């Protein structure tokens, strides 16, 4: 066990608060709210306007307003997917400019055809934040590079014909 802890100290960069270590704090990526819908290929778009490229280990979407749903029935309104009583109620996906999925991590995705998933501690209707992490395998975000926020059904163009609504978020990252 001690050997594992020692190895982790040398292989995983630290996010401990140290003087001058700004990467411990969340850095806001967007200049104005990012809004996305769940049909019609209406993803939200963010560009990296931070001063330099970053190795991103975590991303946080902070809910600012709106509702989305997977059906015309308003009883299914949610912030992050569809309030349907499903075990996989989340459908918010982060991609690069070529629509390669960055978040959520693959192990959370339960339906690859429509990209529905669940995450521990996240409620699709009430959670104010949706936090994605992958500290072991960060992704490289070049300056001015585009990221997209999608609903999975819209990204896959499957079952999105009856989806409705719009959600707006602020986007934050943790980086090395």
From TrEMBL:
PROSITE patterns: CUB. InterPro entries: CUB_dom. The keyword Disulfide bond applies. Residues 1-16 form the signal peptide. Residues 82-176 form the CUB domain. Keywords: Disulfide bond, Signal. Disulfide bonds join 151-168. This is CUB domain-containing protein. It comes from Pocillopora meandrina. The lineage of its organism: Eukaryota, Metazoa, Cnidaria, Anthozoa, Hexacorallia.
